[in-house]
Amino acid sequence: MPRVKLTVAYDGTEFHGWQRQEPPNAPALRTVQGVLQEVVATFVREPIVLMGASRTDAGVHAKGQVAAFTAESFRVPVERIPFALNARLPRDVQVRHAEIVAPNFNPISDAKSKCYRYIIEHLGPPHHAAPLFDRDFVFTTPHALSLAAMQHAASQLVGTHDFEAFAQVSHGRETTVRTIFSCHVRMIAPRRFAVEVSGNGFLYNMVRILAGTLVDVGRGHLDGNSIPAIITSKDRRQAGTTLPPQGLCLEWIHYGVPAEVIDS
Amino acid sequence: MPRVKLTVAYDGTEFHGWQRQEPPNAPALRTVQGVLQEVVATFVREPIVLMGASRTDAGVHAKGQVAAFTAESFRVPVERIPFALNARLPRDVQVRHAEIVAPNFNPISDAKSKCYRYIIEHLGPPHHAAPLFDRDFVFTTPHALSLAAMQHAASQLVGTHDFEAFAQVSHGRETTVRTIFSCHVRMIAPRRFAVEVSGNGFLYNMVRILAGTLVDVGRGHLDGNSIPAIITSKDRRQAGTTLPPQGLCLEWIHYGVPAEVIDS
Question: Is the ipTM of this complex over 0.85?
């Protein structure tokens, strides 16, 4: 039975996150996994289980989520699967790629690196209007931010560390050690910043807490040299606030060579 | 009593157009004029009439709609009005500028030039996914389009003509003569085209019909040299189809020197 890997993009605004909510506890919640699993099952004409790589929260977007399913057969060549599924999917979720993978492919444990992007805009003086057309994709702050301070702090996050201070307290993971391959802050438009972070995995809310910590540094509430001490503290209260979901996008997940090799 | 000119931007997706729908015929329709007029009236603490320059249709967006009202007084300097109104407005409409104008300022008849932009994307082969994050701002077509053919046809629209062939038949205007100052087609991304047209005024659905005619030329259904004959025919059936509203955005309205002088 062929196993298929899908690359999935979605606008998370009107989804209650990735993960399917099982009835009867949450009968009516619309999730990406729920919508996509139903469309795939209809397409392959059998019940399937769709396993996703990242359980993105409500409001979080994705350009490169990865999911996999195993089915008896399907009626088109694998390269036509995106077209067949997209014809049945709602407008806010798309399958961008499909390929046959090994029968034991596991999108969670086989992932070598992931990249997230968080968009922050400084609203500036009152006459600067908030984002309008992309308001569901940007976090806005009234505080002026120092790009240099944020870049310096971001560089201190790179490496293999115990990131317990940057995880929501009820994270439920056995180990909180993760490796961040790269963490960059760039200006992508006037008063608009992108935090791009890649790593071998992320704890629950970790990117939103990293971004919140960088905003605290950028506005001068937190010393840019304090990142190592925050990491060492393993104390969630030492890091910054958890920024809201809408600024966050899962950019890509790699299953081959890790991003550190690609980048060099 | 001061008269105030507002520059207004909105995401038209969830509005039933600009124009207020009067009860009891349409009691529940959400319109930009309806929402904004109510917020302005609350702000100035008196009933006001908000007059808009362009009656954009449901789904049409604006970056530079212009509206005006007259009020006894308001409690802040005029430059703070956008901030005060935006604090009360929903997230999909914004006041970007406010200024005091002459008591007889009429946003419709005083307008010297307007610019609209229509975005068209060629979806290409099935593996090219449709727009996702900006799906409410782009018209998509499965047909390959010739940029050169569209640019040539666009240039033939410039000038003072009777545009009856490019107006919805029930347009209700006394004269259908208008001047187009400029009409350009540009590629703004792979397979994505922007039609930008400025003129001293536009008939009902005129920009959407112009864009539809250019698409017909671009895909080879219509001869690019036929524009003058279509204009001369004054026959709506000779022009192209009316494209849907979501690709259209009202970019700006000028009240000073006309755009032809600015451009030169």
Answer: yes
